[in-house]
Amino acid sequence: MLPKDPVLLLSVVNTKLRDSYPNLEELCHGEDADPDQVTNALAAIGYTYQPDQNQFR
Question: What does the alpha-carbon distance between residue 4 and residue 22 come to, in Å, rounded to a whole number?
Answer without folding.
Answer: 22
